[in-house]
Amino acid sequence: MSPRLAHQLAFIHEVDKLKYVLRKTCLFNSNRRENDAEHSWHLCLMVLVLQEYSPEPIDTLKVLKMLLIHDLVEIDAGDTFLYDPARQGQAHADAEEAAAQRIFGLLPHDQRDEFYALWLEFETADNANTRFARAIDRMEPLFQNLTNGGGTWKEHEVPLSKVFERVKGIAVGTPELWDYFLEELPRALASGQIEAGAEPQS
Amino acid sequence: MSPRLAHQLAFIHEVDKLKYVLRKTCLFNSNRRENDAEHSWHLCLMVLVLQEYSPEPIDTLKVLKMLLIHDLVEIDAGDTFLYDPARQGQAHADAEEAAAQRIFGLLPHDQRDEFYALWLEFETADNANTRFARAIDRMEPLFQNLTNGGGTWKEHEVPLSKVFERVKGIAVGTPELWDYFLEELPRALASGQIEAGAEPQS
What are the b/e assignments for B53-76, b being 16+ CB within 10 Å? Predict the structure, then answer.
């Protein structure tokens, strides 16, 4: 076996651990928590079906690559719950950076550099591909909570004002799909799946 | 919400059920069975890392699309264990065809037709994309069994002769990676992870 293949297979073995990283949200109509590998697969399928709702053309292959690898850092750094302030500080960013170095570092250098660049672009860049990819990533837990009587909104007492603040990237990445949530979220409020909270800051 | 979006969201909800379809094989170094959604994700990542081992250029986006949807029919038709003869007859093929009609039929017609064609191509066509995609699909359980003391080979008493017969598509889709298994499988035999069985038919 060539050293190159040995590195590639080590990476393929290592990423299996993503299947053990549990998210806070549960599957649709379910109390079974989703893992990051299933989540990543579902996002890719959402891209295939919903890409027409990007206001600008996207590079589908690049968006799929980003979503396939975007959560790998959580193997070391743990799941990032959208509404947990402890997951938004510098310490957590440093842990994710170290995880990216270690996990992508298992690959041959050319692939390490490509994957690291894709991950960093997903995390930090502002372009049509990243806007759409991040919108899709934000959308899945909304769908899930809407089928689970409020799901993590209820469980972690997240009010609607906070949800609006944290998922506003959907409006940027895909305004047409955001309109769907602007219809659905008030229904969730009316039916008691979520509390209102403070008025959203405009 | 437009009728088109309603169809698309119905599909996105429905495919969540793939996360409940358990395969016979377990995760790497594990006794936890893998589900079809995790499996599909892992295959996509393997394509990104291993595509250079296709003897002909592949259309990466098309191969990813095929692998993202290739197991959706198992939501209705159940997991297809590679070594179960009952899963290889006409009745099972009919069940998968009916599942494809129902599940892809949730989508708007243009997307239904595209996904159905991709699924059928993966299942039946012989070209560089399908050969590589099917090789990747065959490869993951070999990796898993090799880390699990024989895994499903031991559990279901599958001899090496049968494995060689059922995974020969790897040799066709990616001869260079098949060479890796030609080194590893005899080691599994020598260490008692698998029995020899009858001499393979040439």
Answer: bbeeebebbbbbbbbbbbbbbbbb
Interface test with B, best of A1, A8, A13, A42 (most B CBs within 10 A): A42
CATH number given to A3-190: 1.10.3210.10
Question: How many CB pairs (< 8 A) connect A and B?
Answer: 100
DSSP code per residue over B125-156: --SHHHHHHHHHHHHHHHHHHHHTTTHHHHHT
Cβ–Cβ below 8 Å for A68 and B41: yes
* Nearest neighbour of A16 by CB, restricted to B5, B9, B27: B27
Closest CB from A1, A40, A46 relative to B12: A46
* Residues B77, B92 contacting (CB under 8 angstroms): yes
Q: Cα-flanking dihedrals φ and ψ of residue B25, to 5°? A: -75, 155
The rounded percent of chain A whose pLDDT value lies above 90 is 88
Say whether pLDDT at A86 is over 90.
no
Residue ranges per structural domain of chain B? 3-190
**Strand pairing of A33-35 and A22-26?**
antiparallel
Interface residue of B13, B19, B144 to substitute, partner A, most A CBs within 10 Å: B19
Q: What is the reported pTM?
A: 0.96
**pLDDT exceeds cutoff 70 at B140:** yes
Q: For residue B87, how far is the Cα from the chain centroid? A: 14
Q: Is the pLDDT of residue A202 over 70?
A: no
| CA gap A170, A141 in Å, rounded | 12
Nearest CB to A28 within list B13, B28, B34: B13
